[in-house]
Write a structure and sequence with these properties.
Distance between the termini: 29 Å
Number of strands: 16
Radius of gyration: 23 Å
CATH superfamily of the largest domain: Zn peptidases
Strand content: 15-25%
Order of helices and strands: HHEEEEEHEHEEEHEEHEEHEHEEH
CATH architecture of the largest domain: 3-Layer(aba) Sandwich
Largest sheet: 6 strands, mixed
Amino acid sequence: MREKAEELLRQLVLLKSSPQDEALPIVRFVSERLSSFGLEPSRHGDSDRPAIFARQGEGGVVLSGHLDTVPIGEGWTREQAEVIDGKLYGRGAADMKGGCAAILLAAEQLANEGVPFAVCLTLDEEISMNGALSVAQEGLLEGGSAVLVAEPTDFDIVVREKGLIQFSIRTVGKSAHASMPVLGDNAITKMTAFLHKIADLQKAPEDPYEQLTLAVTTISGGTQVNVIPDSCVAEADSRFPPNMTADEVLDIVKERLGPSGYDLSTLHVLDPVETDPALPAVRALHDIVGTRAQIIGVPYATEMVMFKKGASTLMVCGPGEPTQAHIIDERVSIDEVVRAADLYQRYCRRMTKST
């Protein structure tokens, strides 16, 4: 199994799948592999970056992962798909082709055994999550006992994710020659004053997993060094706990900024999502993973939030360290991929017997 896991993971990593890459090669590779198990994969969502869905039998666990990655970037000291000391390096190794490899390995064995289960693999998690949303809205998750997302968690079990709101602040001024600023109205100066008013919200809280966080992440303004800028735009990313809403976050920001002098626009919103840790499906997974696994919440969002539109029992548990996501020399342990494949098989069998 270990050699098989290494070869499959190597193939997935070498099939580049960032937003700048053509998705069809990896879509074809995964679809053909699922078909070889006797499954009938279908495509959903955006045609150029579809979600691949396949089911065996009725009900069962839905094993979910995303095949897309962020761009490789520069500064790597390891080759793509290079293996050193039992760890495979490459973009997407941890986030999350390691989890996808484990799903495919588990799917082959489950298909041979006739165990009911489903697989959902998407190609747009890093940019839109439209594939996961389409699968949920089309009712493909209905009747399933649980949805298990194989993102890297170091085998902890995630049952709670914070909500997300991204927004922009725009200030408008008047251009003039920089030697005569009195004739203009500096939009950047206005922006710095407003950003100062929300500085307290940008301080790291004692518990970022449970409390509101906010970060100003981009800022742009001005056209030339000797011209007073007439426009400035800053973008911010805020994560909020399940007991808050996106509107409440905006109300807090508006209260700090005041009633006028800026335009505030919402860019993107994701709801928080939470599964009751006392549910039998969660307890069953915890029994299988082992008592060392923690049942936790996380500050980031996965496709779990999109799946809540079609299912109620949602969890995240997978191989690899979450801190490996999006970094240079990203890696995952091949042994962890093998362990995840075994855990997913056992969980699917267990949930079949319990329903």
